[in-house]
Amino acid sequence: MVSVLNPAIATRFADRVPLAPRLSTLEGKTIYLVDTDWGGMQQNDGILEEIQKWFAQNIPSAKIIIKIKAGNFVTDDPGLWKEIAGNHGDGVVIGVAG
Amino acid sequence: MSREAGEIEQKYHIPTVSLAGSNVVSFGLGANFQYNTGMPLRFVGVPFPFSGQPRSVLASYVHGKDTVSGAPFMRAIVDGLTKPLSARENLSGPSPDAPAAEPRMLRPDSQDNLQDLFRQKGWTDYNPVILPTPERVAAMLKGTSHAPDEVVKSAAGTFGSRRPFTVEKVATIAVMAGARPEYLPVILALSTRVPYQDSTTSIAQMVVVNGPIRNKIGMNSGMGALGPDNEANAVIGRSMTLIHKVIQGYVEGVTGFASLSNPLRYDNLCFAENEEALPPGWQPLHVQLGHQATDSVVTIFTGWNFINSTGWVEQHYAPQFLMRDYMSSLSGMGATLIMDPSVADLLSGVQGFKTKAALGQWLSQNVQKTAESYWGNSIVSSMLAPLARQGLKPYADWLGVTGDTLIKPFANANAIHAIVTGGKTASVWFATDFMPDRGTSIDEWA
């Protein structure tokens, strides 16, 4: 029988953070589609524009705004989040990561 | 992306849906949620691959199914923004699913059973390890003046999640890898750099040691420097693999998603620079990075490609010409040439490159590739095209030109490095796109 040290690291789960309350409807709301610019040029544009088209056809009262994040996909863009909040953005769809 | 979505939700209270490819969405829903964000973000998944797909395929994704819920894609987005929060999504404070504490010692068992346990737990590189008995770990700890219970780092997990580890843990891993106590300061210095960079692409690391410790611990910077025939090179490289797995917690498919990964990861290209064989005027790597020549330093490089000169230097084609040719296939973000001392002597003595920087300057001015090939590299395109669109030169200039325009991709000559190592039995070299960190002091861990 051999006694050995345990190499495993005692991990800690992150403290839980609740999500923001959800909207009751998207009718008349302003939804931002944020392009993270992951994957390079024109990788996300197509999907976000197709989503925008779907809203135009199915929930036309929703105002859909596409924004490209400043910097690149690994940098933060706090100015954009502030802008979205300041312009009464009601919801955000952000992507696409891959 | 989870970071941004979390910030929008938490700071501005705006409901957010995250879109991710089916290749990585499980990370956002799993390990990243548990260890990093603590926020059960609402993800909608698109099939992978979506990059490089024609518009018609992207449209079919939007009119198809969400790969997470199986619901229609747009229904999932609408639900993500409107469906009331569940009790789980409303939770705040400490996680109710806290992982079990890890005891300092494992339950005593036979050597065979412990080897099986280590392998099953993912604590090996699938070669048998040296079992870390208290006696072996105590002997290893004599290689450093630091206390066993000193915390080396806390944010050690992928994306900086909390995985605090001590000097004793690193000594335990050093034993497992087969290290001698005198290697421990190098391995401790290496451990301070976790989390090592990972990617779905075939990224890898390279470990270069400079300074007096190279010779003190018998690292190879001579004949066969990049091969497996040296104990210190091999074992320190192996230690890094174990640190990546055990301390950082890298598990393919859980905390990492490398599609092909990279065979260079097997031993992390661990070697020493042959400082004694540098031509006059060529500074050792660590001095170039701002350290003193008398310092012992470990530098971790990150990159993808490792292109072999194949043969030796021909009289009719100077080495910098073939380096230029081979480097035109690299991204341009950075490069490191690894060369035998005989190549360095030719470059310095015959070709007139009196410093490493002069060689970098020449290559920066002479490596060329077409703009469409440059932007065709998705790492370049991801990292630099957004900055180019925002006007950053010279990248902005390269966006507006025709695809066949020749550009000089290594705009930053300082990002081209040279390392001299090897035994002067062939004038051979490698062109790589590996890029260094700033170098970490080994002396601080002695």
Explain the layout of strands and helices.
The complex is a heterodimer of chains A (98) and B (446).
Chain A: E1 30-35, H1 45-58, E2 63-68, H2 78-86, E3 91-97
Parallel strand pairs in A: 1-2, 1-3
Chain B: H1 2-12, E1 16-21, H2 25-29, H3 31-37, E2 42-46, H4 55-62, H5 73-82, H6 87-90, H7 111-120, H8 134-141, E3 151-153, E4 165-166, H9 167-177, H10 184-191, E5 204-210, H11 213-216, H12 231-247, E6 270-272, H13 285-288, E7 297-303, E8 306-308, H14 319-327, E9 335-339, H15 341-350, H16 356-366, E10 369-370, H17 371-375, H18 378-389, H19 395-399, E11 406-407, E12 416-420, E13 429-432, E14 435-436, E15 440-441
Parallel strand pairs in B: 1-2, 5-6, 9-12
Antiparallel strand pairs in B: 3-4, 5-7, 7-14, 7-15, 8-13, 9-13, 10-11
Could you describe the 3D structure shown?
- The complex is a heterodimer of chains A (98) and B (446).
- In chain A, strands 2-1-3 form a 3-stranded parallel sheet, covered by helices on one side.
- The N and C termini of chain A lie far apart (47 Å).
- Chain A is 23% helix and 19% strand.
- Chain A has 98 residues and is α/β, with parallel strands linked by helices.
- In chain A, β1 (30-35), α1 (45-58) and β2 form a beta-alpha-beta unit.
- Chain A has a domain at 30-95.
- Chain A is elongated.
- Chain B is built from 19 helices and 15 strands.
- The mean pLDDT of chain B is 95.
- In chain B, the strands form 5 sheets. In chain B, strands 5, 6, 7, 14 and 15 form a 5-stranded mixed sheet that branches. Chain B has a 4-stranded mixed sheet with strand order 8-13-9-12.
- Chain B has helices at 2-12, 25-29, 31-37, 55-62, 73-82, 87-90, 111-120, 134-141, 167-177, 184-191, 213-216, 231-247, 285-288, 319-327, 341-350, 356-366, 371-375, 378-389, 395-399, and strands at 16-21, 42-46, 151-153, 165-166, 204-210, 270-272, 297-303, 306-308, 335-339, 369-370, 406-407, 416-420, 429-432, 435-436, 440-441.
- In chain B, α8 (134-141) crosses α9, α9 crosses α10 and α10 (184-191) packs parallel to α12 (231-247).
- With 446 residues, chain B is an alpha+beta fold.
- Chain B has 2 domains: 2-90, no CATH class; 134-368 and 408-445, no CATH class.
- Classes of the chains: A alpha/beta (98), B alpha+beta (446).
